[in-house]
Design a protein that fits this description.
With 280 residues, this protein is an alpha/beta fold. The protein contains 12 helices and 11 strands.
Length: 280
């Protein structure tokens, strides 16, 4: 793993995400090395030669986070890294950022696959408006091991429980959902006692990792290969339309809070248009 300390001018970056005004990415790169990670596109801009998952830049910033910018706004940690990756245990950048955020009247969202977040319960419980989302797209430890180097499924579930017990609003982010491999019902049934809200996002394949995932499916789950080819090579979205309808019906019938991000790209485009059309 290549570690490098880098100086940045500002932790706050304007966000294109549908539900946040700003994002903070304390690191560049991520040791979780998720095989389906869209954030690997960052290498085009950072000019890293190492494989995704084999480098991490630790971002230091002398400039305080702007109270004026964030007051009344939403901020999300993180969009292209996991702010609680294992190197956070060493460098504590996310913790230092949280120490600033707890003094600001803003909405905070944190997304992670790591139980390291429990280290910061003392700060998280001081946040006035916080949602923590833990990513789980399977209950199979084998599938998880095939896909990433993050915390185990059992640890992620225990993390949700402990956060919930401390009064923190918990979100299970079912992302990315793999056709025929992610069983949303069993995940909900396993976790509904300590999850306040569910978010759903389908698997999108593009760029360098598209063929990697398709090869994995062909080798490990050949019975599903025809479906994956229809979706990802022929552009047939019938599967996602049906699954979306099923998820929404299931959640509404059981009064489960949820957000469907299956149309994430459309939501992003809508936000961009809204921003461009708003008066400055």
């Amino acid at each position: 793993m290549i570690e490098k300390l880098v100086q940045c001018n500002d932790y706050l970056v304007k966000s294109n995400l549908p539900a946040s005004d700003y994002v903070i990415n304390p690191y560049v790169g991520c040791p979780h090395a998720c095989k389906y990670c869209y954030a690997c596109f960052m290498k085009r801009f950072t000019h890293h030669d190492e494989a995704w998952g084999e480098f991490i830049d630790i971002k230091y910033c002398d400039k305080p986070i702007s109270v004026k910018k964030l007051t009344g706004k939403t901020v999300f940690l993180s969009s292209v890294t996991d702010c609680y990756n294992q190197y956070e245990g060493k460098y504590r950048i996310t913790r230092k950022i949280l120490e600033q955020l707890i003094t600001i009247d803003c909405e905070i969202g944190i997304s992670t696959k790591s139980n390291l977040i429990l280290r910061d319960l003392d700060l998280l419980t001081q946040c006035k408006n916080l949602k923590v989302s833990i990513s789980i797209n399977t209950l199979s430890q084998k599938f998880k091991e095939d896909m990433d180097r993050a915390s185990s499924i059992a640890d992620r579930i225990e993390t949700l429980k402990e956060l919930h017990e401390h009064g923190i609003y918990t979100v299970l982010f079912m992302s990315p959902m793999f056709p025929c491999l992610t069983n949303f019902k069993t995940i909900i049934e396993e976790t509904k006692g300590f999850v306040d809200e569910y978010w759903f996002e389908n698997l999108n394949l593009r760029g360098s990792y598209k063929q990697k995932i398709l090869t994995y499916i062909k080798e490990e789950h050949p019975d599903f290969m025809e479906l994956y080819e229809r979706i990802y090579l022929q552009g047939d979205n019938t599967y996602w339309a049906k699954l979306s309808y099923e998820i929404e019906g299931y959640c509404k019938l059981r009064n489960i809070r949820y957000i469907n991000y299956f149309y994430h790209e459309m939501l992003v485009e809508q936000k961009k248009k809204a921003i461009s059309n708003s008066p400055h």
